[in-house]
Amino acid sequence: MVDKIILEITRYSPEQDVEPRFESYEVPVYKEWVVLDALNYIKDKVDGSLTYRWSCRMGICGSCGMMVNGEPKLTCATFLSAYARNGNKVRVEPLRYFPVVRDLVTELSDFLVKLRNVKPWLIRKDEPPLGQGEFLQTPEQLDRYKQFSMCINCTLCYAACPVVGLDPVFVGPAAIALAQRYNMDSRDQGADERMAVLAHPEGVWGCTFVGECTRVCPKHVDPAGAIQQYKLMAVLDWVKSFVMPRGHKSQGCPQ
Q: Given 19, 130, 161, 214, which residue has the most CB atoms within 10 angstroms?
């Protein structure tokens, strides 16, 4: 006989509801099922109006991030059997600190603006002719930024970060980690441009180093570490402004 478990799922329709509510659904628990499988079961067999995001089912796209029993999780990588003990229920909610569009779907426009503002792409002051060949890197140069490049923009770190909850203008962990990914890239020349965006109270100086962003990252990126690296870079830039010739502008420490 197949075990059963109750999923308590946030339901919210802006056309009908004043505020979100919870609805309960009983689903089977198979050994190989993840929470996303349970949501798909409900969508296909019980209530087709349930709305949520998902795509790859492989922990790559970052689309299916939700709160599972109060923890930010990728539902495609969270096994249902881990909760199916002693009659436990599983509560599934949209990610914290984001506006809710419908049910489990959150609005990501603000995050995407913050991400674009840190310029997460290679910036070059000069582009050599293509005939000169590609930019080469050593394995050591790749290792400097590789872990930051693993970010999949799932925004679990935003849902885990208490500063994001308190200060909506805070740039946030993933954006800063991706900025650092390019700063550490030997091919990039845009660190000063990013420092001008991030060396402010709403940037790296807003972080209180709780470390929850790193703890919940499903790809083992260390956003908290990236932010502390950035703070050190900002301080060094500020110190240089005192020893460099007149006219050098510091981007680093907040005024």
A: 161
DSSP 8-state class, residue 110: H
**Residue found by looking up tokens 């990013």 in the block:** 194
* Locus of tokens 């900002």: 234
The Cα 89–Cα 35 span in angstroms is 12
Q: Please report the domains of the chain, with CATH numbers, ordered by start residue.
A: 3-106 (3.10.20.30), 109-243 (1.10.1060.10)
Q: Which residues, listed in sequence order, are joined to residue 68 by a DSSP beta bridge?
A: 71, 92
**Average pLDDT estimate for 229-240:** 84
| CA distances from residue 63 to 57, 84, 254 in whole angstroms, order as listed | 9, 24, 35
Q: CA–CA separation, 229 vs 11, rounded Å?
A: 40
Sole residue written with tokens 């929850």: 212
Distance CA 207, CA 29 (A): 40
153: left (phi > 0), else alpha (psi -120 to 50), else beta?
left
Give the side-chain half-sphere CA count within 13 A for 210.
15
Q: Locate tokens 């845009």: which residue?
A: 190
What is the band of 168 on the pLDDT scale with cuts at 50, 70, 90?
A: very high
pLDDT at 255 exceeding the cut of 50 = no
CA distance 161 to 208: 10
Q: Is the pTM of this model over 0.85?
A: yes
Amino acid at 9: I
User: How do residues 203-220 score in pLDDT, each as one tens digit?
Assistant: 999 999 999 999 999 999
CA dihedral sign, ordered 109, 115, 116, 117: positive
Q: Any idea what the Cα angle at residue 231 is, between residues 209 and 249, rounded to 5°?
A: 155
